[in-house]
Amino acid sequence: MADRVFVAVAWPYANGPRHIGHVAGFGVPSDVFARYHRMKGDAVLMVSGTDEHGTPITVAADQEGVSPAALADRYNQVITEDLADLGLAYDLFTRTTTANHYAVVQDLFATLHRKGYLIERTEPGAFSATTGRALPDRYVEGTCPHCGSDSARGDQCDDCGKQLDPTDLIDPRSASDGEAPVFRESNHFYLDLPAFAEALREWIEPRTDWRPNIKKFTLNYIDELKPRPITRDIDWGVPIPLPEYADRDDKKIYVWFDAVIGYLSAAIEWAHSTGDPERWREWWQDEAAKHLYFMGKDNIVFHTTIWPSLLLGYGADGGYSDGRPLRLPDNVVSSEFLTMEGRKFSSSRGVVIYVRDVLDRYQADALRYYLTIAGPEQQDTDFTWSEFVRRTNEELVATWGNVSNRVLRLAQQLGGTVPEPGALTDDDRAVRDTVAGGFASVGELIESAHFKAALQEAMRLAGETNRYISAQEPWKLRKTDEARARTVIWTALQCTHDLARLFAPFLPFSSQRLHEQLGHDDVIAPQPVVTTNTDAHGDEHRVLRLPEGATWGRWASSDLPVGQPLSPPSPLFTKLDPAVVDDELARLEARASA
Ligand SMILES: [Zn+2]
C-alpha cells in the first residue's frame, strides 16, 4: 500500500439529521481505514463535508418556513456534532456553502466551458402554475405512459421502474399543490460525457484491483453515456461563472456537479488551514498517492465515470492544476444497505434511528462495534435493537471488555505496576506471538476493506488472551509460585497492551481509555473537534477536524515497561439491560405513529 492515502468520504445531505444507515455505509468504515493507515505511519488526508444545495434543501426550507441557508446551517451543525461524537477523525469535514468551494466549483465549470466540454441546450422545463418557480422532476406527478400507474414521478415510475421526463407524464400535476405545471423552454448546460468515453475506457480496462462486478458495470455504463445537465432552474446553488449569468437568480449550477467537487475543494481548504496552501498537491498530483472513495452502492458509477470525467476534462489546464493533471480515483469502497427492524429507513414515515438517538443513550464504541461487525459491508443487513443489545453484552462486554478488565484486576492484586517477568514458557511466547501477529493479520484485512473480518480477527486474539489466562490460573499461582504468577500477568499485560492498539481503529474511545489505564499519558486514538475555519477567501464557517499535533499509536507490537504504574480497572463497556429492547421499540412505534 502507498504511503500517501487520500480518503474521500461521501458527503451527507444537510436536509435533516442523519440516521444510522448513513454512517453504517461509509462513515465508520472510512474512519477505521484512515485510523489504521495513520497508525501505520502513512500520510493520510481524509475529507468530507455536508452537501447543502439542491431541491431537497429548498423544499424542506419551504416546509419549515426558513431560508435554504438557515436550514442547511442548522443541519450542518447537527451532522457535524453527530460525526464528532461518533469519533470520525476527518482532517477536515467542511461544507459546500463556503467561498472556497464556490471558487473551486466555478473554476471547474469555467475550465470545462472554455475547453468545449459543455453543451448548451434548450428544453422544456416544468414550472409551478401558482408560484412560477421551477418544479424539480420528482415533484411533478402523473400517469405513467408505460404501465398506466397514476403515481409516477417526473424522474421515474416506481411501479414499472422506467426512467421518465416530466413531459412524458399523462395529466401531469405539481406534487405540492396538485395544479398542472406550465412547461416553458429553458436553456441549460450539459456536460458532454460521451466525449470522455474513450479516455474512461483506457483508464478502466487495465485495472486489476477493482471488484469484477464494479468494473463490468462501469464499462457497460460507459457505452450508454449521455450528456448530463449541470445547471438547473433554481435560486439556491453555486452561481454560473459566465458574464451573461452573473445577475441571474433563477439558474444555478446543479447540486450533483457542485457536491462531487467537494473532494477537491475540501483538500484545498485543508491545505490553506495548515499554513501551506500548496500541500493538497501532495495527494492530488503526487504519482505515489492513492485515492480511495467510500460511498453507498447507489453511487458507484457516479464515482467511476462521472467524477473521473470532470477530472479528465479539467486536466492540466485548470486554475488550480498549475500545469499538472489531478489524480483519478484508484478504487471505490462501496457498502450495501442497512434496514431497520426489517423495514427500509424512512425519515418521513418515522421509521428511523438517528445517530443522535444512539449516541445520547449508548457508547459511541458500541455503535461503531455493531455497525462494523453486523453492518452492510458485503450484503444488505438489518439493524435490530435485540441484536444491538446481544452483541454489546455477549461480544463487546463479555470478550474484549472482560479480558482487559480481568488483566488489570490481576495486576492490581500483584502490586499495581507492570511486574518483572521470569523466564517465558512456550505457552507465554505462543500467546504473545499470536496477539502480536494481529498487526499483520488485522492490518491486511483492513487494507483490503474487509472491516468485519478484521474486527473478528481482533476479537479472536482477545479470546486467545482470555483462554491463556484461564489456563494459567494466575490467581492460584499467586499463592503457590509468585514468580510464575508475575510472568503470567506480565505476558497478559503485554497482550492487552497490543490489543488496545489493534482495536483502536474500530473502538477509538475505549482503546484510548485502556491505554491510559495501562499507565500511558500519550494519545493513540485522537478525536476530532468541532471548530471554525477561515478559508482562503476569508469565509469563516463551522468545521470538524483533528486537533493540531494529533498523535497516533504505532501499529506494531511493543512492550509495556516493567515498573510502569497501572490504574485500577474500570469497565470499558457498559452492559445493557435487556429492557432496552422494549424501550427502544416503543420509542420507534411512537415516532412512526406521530
Ligand atoms: Zn410505469
Explain what the structure shows.
The two termini are 50 Å apart. Among the domains are: 4-117 and 191-335, 3-Layer(aba) Sandwich (Rossmann fold); 385-520 and 564-579, Orthogonal Bundle (Isoleucyl-tRNA Synthetase, Domain 1). It has 594 residues and is an alpha/beta fold. The longest helix is centred in the C-terminal third of the chain and has 29 residues, at 385-413. The protein has 20 helices and 17 strands. β12 (290-296), α10 (300-314) and β13 (331-335) form a beta-alpha-beta unit. The protein has helices spanning 20-39, 55-64, 68-85, 99-114, 197-204, 212-223, 255-260, 262-273, 281-284, 300-314, 355-361, 364-373, 385-413, 426-436, 438-447, 451-472, 474-480, 482-503, 508-517, 579-592, and strands at residues 4-9, 43-50, 92-95, 118-127, 140-143, 152-153, 170-174, 182-191, 228-229, 231-233, 251-253, 290-296, 331-335, 338-340, 381-383, 529-534, 540-545. The strands form 6 sheets. It has a 5-stranded parallel sheet, with helices on both faces. Helix content is 44%, strand content 15%. It is elongated, with a radius of gyration of 27 Å. Residues 144, 146-147, 149, 152, 157, 159-160, 162 line the site of zinc ion. Zinc ion binds next to loops.
